[in-house]
Amino acid sequence: MHRRGITAATITATTVLAAAVAAAGDASAAPTPQAVPHTKPAWTAHAKHLGHAKDSAAVQARVYLAPRGGLAALKRTATAIATPGNAQYGKVLTAAQYRARFAPTDGSVRAVSSYLRSQGLHVGAASAGKRYVTVTGSTKAAEQAFHTRIERYRHDGRTVSAPGKTLAVPASVKSAVLTVSGLDTTPRRNAPASTKSAPPSTGFRNARPCSRYYGQVKATYQADFKTKLPKYDNTTLSYAPCGYTGPQYRTAYEGTTTLTGKGVTVAITDAYASPTIAADAKRYAAEHGDAAYTGGQLYQTQPSAFTDETACDASGWYGEETLDVEAVHAMAPKAKIHYYASASCNDADFLDTLAQVVDDNDSKLVSNSWGDLEQNESADNVAAYEAVFLQGATEGISFLFSSGDNGDELANSGLKQADYPTSDPYVTSVGGTSDAIGADGKLLFQTGWGTEKLNLVNNKWSSIGFTSGAGGGSSALFNRPEYQDGATTSPYRQTPDIGLDADPNTGMLVGQTQTFTTGVQYDEYRIGGTSLASPLFAGLTALSLENNGGNGIGLLNPTIYANKTTAFTDVKGTPPDAGVVRVDYANSEDAKGGLLYSVRLFNRDSSLKLAKGYDNVTGVGAPNPKWLTALKRS
Predict the structure, then answer these.
(1) Which domain range does residue 36 map to?
(2) 446 forms bridges with which residues in the sheet?
(3) How far is C-alpha 221 from the chain's CA centre?
């Protein structure tokens, strides 16, 4: 993949329309085609070529329209609004103001649609916000319209079609076209960030013994209290916490503040929608000391229908939604939570979901616990995502994305790389820590989340190596944004930006209705991953926005890096304890199938290491109570 570098020039709608209509009406006209950058997939160079696609083969694509005035102008505005000290800082736009200033015009829609129809393609109605028009037709017509050849390839174990060369369109409509997606038919599906720690769709419970707070119960004996456990490195470790709850996290991260998130709405996006989320969240809050939900405090927006349930493991997303909702409420008990359900885990559906978030402009924070490898992203999807992030930034909406749960991704993909969308410069990438919260709710220590697992074999601890850890690394898509100047010397965008508790061995206790062998019922389990860190930070930031009068500021990163030595605590690499002992049910439900014992070591995140200042595990560090005043404008 190449870094996208598309810049649309300013052009009047009248000029675009007139030129397109003239071209459509004169069959002899031969407008000079101009390239739409980065629309030839990079992977084709390494895939097996199977020949030309049939002329009659059906194609379906989206032609995304460029922002009015050009992408560069939109980026400048979004950055200025989010940068402390800039004259435009905090002067966010309403959704109507954004549309009047930046949204593609009706004239651009007509011009592009007219050209596409003139080439034999069927054009559907423009999407909400005029972001794109859908086109369908034959391969032959698509090749003619975009001046390319569509070839067949064997790629990632699938037979797919994709452009064999960069797409091009006439100069008369080039300025109105941002990118084209769909001609590359490789499926692009996002996964929950907590792939290593999310519960299965069948019932899951954490075994006993465990600790109510960090260090409470020493792992001297097994559950029968007769059989001794071996020490690790001549040290008796503690049993893992059963799972931290809202009161513990609030004390650890928020101190004694009286802020509650009142007047702020946090959006959450995931695929599908848990049918029991309202009842589960209500029960969990009641049982663990969180404020009761008031009428309308938790509400959902869903598509008309869900698709690809099997391919996307729809029920597996229910745990993700449960974690996100309960974590945000735990940190900001009076903030509203607006859950947006994507129709599937596919990029096109997530793009539509995020577009609705910014068009509604109902929320000032958006927590997203999903993503994919950068190598699996296409430049057209990146361009489409970034246009949404930029619109949100101008409207004062902040996007948070989990940084991933596979460390440097080498073991997972064969390449060291960052994930996307978390690597986009216009979102905040949330990495992970391992947190020790003591009996009084205060932090005993924090270190980087990266787990090495040792199983109990013949009464000895035997290492099976790295299992999971905070995602991070150097982006192959983006250069270093200005806000990272001085934090890192790399010329490329680095992830994550910050870190909060993500270790599933020091994670959060959540409550969810699941399917056990004894029937469908509510139960609780400990969970982690950067899927936890993102909603924790969203809830914490809701308090900071409350302190700012409920006003959003858009991209958080300029403020984060400007306050990196005050509002964030540098996370240390040598914790006082090497790790914890964890107990699991062999059958995931109860002790009938036996118990499994393991040591989970801290701060073993693949090749990623903690460092003084910025690092690729926790970014600039973990937020402390001073973050609650960092967004307040004087």
Answers:
(1) 13-68+103-186
(2) 435
(3) 40
d(CA 541, CA 551): 12
Task: Report, as an integer, the average pLDDT of 291-297.
Answer: 97
Answer whether 0.90 is exceeded by the pTM. yes
Q: What is the pLDDT of residues 428-473, one digit of tens each?
A: 999 999 999 999 999 999 999 999 999 999 999 999 999 999 999 9
Q: Are residues 149 and 255 located together in one domain of the fold?
A: no
Please check whether residue 471 is in contact with residue 405, taking contact to mean a CB–CB distance below 8 angstroms: yes
The verdict on 225 and 299 lying in the same domain is yes
**CA gap 97, 77 in Å, rounded:** 13
Residues 275 and 212 in one domain: yes
Q: Which of 11-20, 279-288, 431-440 has the lowest mean pLDDT?
A: 11-20
Region 469-497 average pLDDT:
98
Does residue 152 share a domain with residue 107? yes
Residues 232 and 165 in one domain: no
Rounded Cα gap, residues 291 and 633, in angstroms: 28
Mean pLDDT of 310-315: 91
Phi first, then psi: what are they for 414, rounded to 5°?
A: 90, -5
Can you spell out the DSSP letters for 254-293?
HTT-----TT-EEEEEEES--TTHHHHHHHHHHHTTPPPP
In a domain, 78, yes or no: no
94-126 pLDDT per residue, tens: 999 999 999 999 999 999 999 999 999 999 999
Q: Is residue 536 part of a domain?
A: yes
pLDDT more than 90, % of the chain: 90
Residue % of the chain over a pLDDT of 70: 94
pLDDT tens digits for 237-264?
999 999 999 999 999 999 999 999 999 9
DSSP alpha helix (H) spans, 293-430: 316-331, 347-360, 379-394, 410-413
State the CB neighbour count (10 A cutoff) for residue 574.
9
Structural domain includes residue 193: no
- Contact present, 117 and 24 (Cβ < 8 Å): yes
Same domain, residue pair 269 and 153: no
DSSP state of 9: P
Query: Looking up tokens 């290492």, which residue turns up?
Result: 463
Residue among 449, 445, 463, 554 nearest 215 (CA): 445
Q: What is the CATH number of the domain that holds 442?
A: 3.40.50.200
| Domain match, 179 and 284 both | no
Rounded to whole angstroms, how far apart are CA atoms 34 and 6? 12
Q: Are residues 126 and 230 in the same domain?
A: no
**Total domains, the chain:** 2
